[in-house]
């Protein structure tokens, strides 16, 4: 298999920047913010403790599992520590859950690159199911119902459906009615639901209704999350999974723990200790998340406006730091002027000729003939102290280094269409 598209574009961007190219980094979905100093202090204390060198329990330290359970209880998901398994990031936990389940895997189209890749690593059949307009991360319930019925009739039943709430790559959040319908479909076809909720705390409107499928189908829903997005701890590699209630959850939990015991043994002990404190949601961290949420919303919205002004079809982002513009309306123009006929060719052109790093929709399961791009906006905040200033700015879009990058984007899109 090839290296993950998101990691590959991050490496390529870094190489071109090191070579002196003024690359606009819109490809990699890192949170782009500094770690809160109190988290750094918590990790330092944990690393210095006498117990920090031990492996610890396979499923995670009791304090972390209880803190994560409390995090979910505060979000209307009754959870015991026994339902929680910790791992070195949500990625390996997702893989372990896939490994412990059976049948084909239904994914929203488009969806995060890792889901399909992990299913393929396990030799599982992947069923890409389109989403409803503006409701990324969740398959259209009617199309999922039809896909599950067809797969069952063919003797290759779907066993699992993955949801992303809110969504990467589109930066949107599916509505409660859609979630309810998918839960109904899952019960009708006996599907396990895996709900990736790692961006839950970054919904731009903090009072917007968020419905987890675990509230509707607790007996068949696994929920995963971590601290890489809300607290910018991607490099710390820590995630947690909430197993379903009842016998299915007991079986899945045991099998995920068995995979963990042979693959990663246990997450890093000092990181677990710091993460336990973070999942307790002390005030200074909730304030940091709120500031991050506001920053992501403002900059992602501004980037979406630039793409819309260039003529792309794009839903205004409502969560995290992503958007998903589509230039299909300009297919003839792009083919004639640039010999671009696919999303991959469009992304390559933007990088090679205009120094704008993006990812094509094809990396997320879309047909390559659709001229769609996944845009990540969180690396526009600058470096070092600039990122701290972006967090506290009244309007981060007006900061010179952010404004310059937005203008760089507009200029590139203008040249793409020979408008500037």
UniProtKB/TrEMBL annotation:
Its cofactor is pyridoxal 5'-phosphate. GO terms for biological process: amino acid metabolic process. GO terms for molecular function: pyridoxal phosphate binding; transaminase activity. Pfam families: Aminotran_1_2. The keyword Transferase applies. Keywords: Aminotransferase, Pyridoxal phosphate, Transferase. InterPro entries: Aminotransferase_I/II_large (IPR004839), AspAT/PAT-like (IPR050596), NHTrfase_class1_PyrdxlP-BS (IPR004838), PyrdxlP-dep_Trfase (IPR015424), PyrdxlP-dep_Trfase_major (IPR015421), PyrdxlP-dep_Trfase_small (IPR015422). Residues 24-376 form the Aminotransferase class I/classII large domain. The keyword Coiled coil does not apply. PROSITE patterns: AA_TRANSFER_CLASS_1. Its EC number is 2.6.1.-. Belongs to the class-I pyridoxal-phosphate-dependent aminotransferase family. This is Aminotransferase. The lineage of its organism: Bacteria, Bacillati, Actinomycetota, Actinomycetes, Propionibacteriales.
């Amino acid at each position: 298999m090839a290296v993950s598209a998101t990691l590959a574009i991050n490496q390529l961007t870094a190489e071109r920047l090191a070579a002196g190219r003024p690359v606009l980094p819109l490809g990699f979905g890192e949170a782009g913010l500094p770690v809160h100093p109190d988290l750094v202090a918590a990790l330092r204390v944990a690393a210095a403790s006498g117990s920090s060198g031990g492996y610890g329990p396979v499923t995670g330290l009791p304090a972390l599992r209880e803190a994560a359970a409390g995090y979910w209880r505060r979000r209307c998901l009754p959870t015991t520590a026994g339902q929680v398994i910790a791992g070195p990031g949500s990625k390996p936990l997702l893989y372990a859950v896939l490994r412990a389940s059976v049948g084909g895997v239904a994914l929203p189209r488009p969806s995060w690159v890792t889901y399909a890749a992990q299913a393929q690593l396990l030799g599982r059949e992947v069923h890409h199911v389109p989403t409803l307009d503006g409701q990324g991360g969740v398959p259209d319930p009617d199309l999922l119902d039809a896909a599950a019925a067809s797969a069952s009739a063919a003797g290759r039943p779907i066993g699992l459906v993955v949801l992303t709430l809110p969504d990467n790559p589109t930066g949107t959040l599916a509505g409660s009615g859609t979630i309810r319908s998918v839960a109904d479909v899952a019960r009708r076809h006996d599907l396990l639901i895996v709900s990736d909720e790692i961006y839950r705390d970054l919904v731009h409107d903090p009072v917007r209704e968020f419905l987890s499928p675990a509230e509707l189908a607790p007996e068949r829903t696994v929920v995963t999350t971590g601290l890489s997005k809300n607290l910018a701890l991607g490099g710390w590699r820590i995630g947690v999974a909430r197993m379903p209630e009842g016998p299915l959850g007991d079986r899945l939990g045991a099998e995920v723990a068995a995979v963990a015991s042979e693959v990663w043994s246990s997450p890093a002990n000092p990181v677990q200790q710091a993460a336990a404190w973070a999942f307790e949601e002390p005030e200074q961290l909730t304030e940091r998340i709120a500031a991050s949420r506001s920053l992501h919303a403002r900059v992602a919205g501004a980037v979406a406006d630039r793409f819309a002004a260039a003529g792309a079809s794009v839903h205004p982002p409502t969560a995290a730091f992503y958007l998903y513009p589509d230039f299909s309306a300009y297919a003839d123009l792009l083919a004639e002027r640039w010999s671009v006929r696919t999303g991959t060719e469009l992304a390559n052109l933007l990088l090679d000729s205009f120094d704008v790093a993006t990812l094509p929709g094809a990396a997320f399961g879309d047909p390559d003939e659709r001229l769609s791009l996944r845009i990540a906006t969180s690396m526009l905040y600058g470096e070092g102290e600039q990122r701290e200033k972006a967090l506290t700015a009244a309007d981060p879009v007006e900061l010179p280094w952010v404004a310059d990058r937005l203008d760089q984007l507009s200029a590139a899109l203008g040249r793409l269409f020979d408008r500037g």
